[in-house]
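Bumping my old thread because nobody answered last time. Still need a sequence for this structure:
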């Protein structure tokens, strides 16, 4: 049975930057994304939560086309996501992505990690790219680590480098897929603080996270997914204090009570 999601968010995005319209995706028999409609405004911070296997990562991965879709459309800043080729590479560069695992190039220095995409994809000259990289590394608090290799950094430092690397491409939107869940507890806050600052600076962000404190303080809207659908969306206060759907109530009772 198809059920319209409970929507108590801010209504249709005023100035939509990312728009998913009736997006469907299957993995074989599994209908992993089901009629996903989601419009994200410029400068908006959307936190996506939901049970394991509900399709949160797949949703992120379709937005920068690491996964294809079966039907529906995705537009970024008014332009449909291209299927492939140079156009796709350029559009993908508009979408910064930070994963659970740090995905830095192990054999390159921190500085080189943050410089590479700028010279290769954005065609900046090396000096300009390095200057940008150093500014961004300072901004996320790891400027002193620029000449080290990833393995010489803590997990929290590596994740902040990954954020700087994504920012170096000057993305229009940043996607975070559980960026703190592989970190030791004492390193979680340093990464969340960088993300909080980004949000305050007006970056458009989609964040999959189990950090409900972050969701409460940084999100403009919480999107709750279950079984491949958006079941409920609302401003954080409303969502956490008064979830409407049974699925969301059940999920919150499990994660908030231990
Ligand atoms: N490449 C793949 N091939 C087949 N099935 C997949 C693939 N990737 C994901 N799935 C399945 O799709 C469903 C949704 O996966 P997804 O990773 O998007 O969930 P999630 O909400 O991010 O879960 P988690 O909270 O555990 O990260 C799961 O049942 C998963 O097993
Ligand atoms: Mg996931």
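Sorry it took so long. Here it is:
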């Amino acid at each position: 049975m198809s059920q319209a999601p409970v929507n108590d968010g801010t209504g249709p995005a005023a100035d939509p930057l990312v728009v998913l319209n009736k997006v469907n995706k299957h993995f074989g028999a599994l209908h992993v994304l089901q009629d996903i409609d989601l419009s994200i405004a410029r400068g908006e911070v959307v936190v996506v939560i939901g049970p394991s296997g509900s399709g949160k990562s797949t949703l992120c991965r379709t937005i920068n086309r690491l996964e294809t879709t079966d039907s529906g459309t995705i537009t970024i800043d008014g332009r449909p996501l291209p299927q492939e080729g140079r156009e796709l590479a350029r559009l993908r560069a508009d979408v910064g992505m930070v994963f659970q695992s740090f995905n830095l190039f192990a054999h390159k220095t921190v500085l080189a990690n943050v410089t590479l995409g700028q010279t290769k994809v954005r065609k900046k000259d090396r000096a300009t790219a390095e200057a940008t990289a150093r500014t961004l590394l300072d901004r996320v608090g790891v400027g002193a680590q620029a000449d080290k290799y990833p393995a010489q950094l803590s997990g929290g430092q590596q994740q902040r480098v990954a954020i700087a690397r994504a920012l170096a491409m000057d993305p229009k939107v940043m996607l975070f897929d559980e960026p703190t869940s592989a970190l030791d507890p004492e390193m979680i806050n340093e990464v969340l603080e960088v993300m909080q600052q980004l949000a305050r600076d007006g970056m458009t962000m989609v964040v999959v996270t189990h950090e409900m404190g972050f969701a409460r303080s940084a999100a403009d809207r919480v999107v709750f997914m279950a079984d491949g659908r958006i079941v409920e969306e609302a401003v954080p206060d409303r969502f956490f204090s008064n979830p409407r759907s049974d699925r969301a109530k059940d999920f919150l009772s499990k994660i908030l009570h231990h």
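Residues 185-200 form the longest helix (16 residues). Let me know if any region looks off to you.
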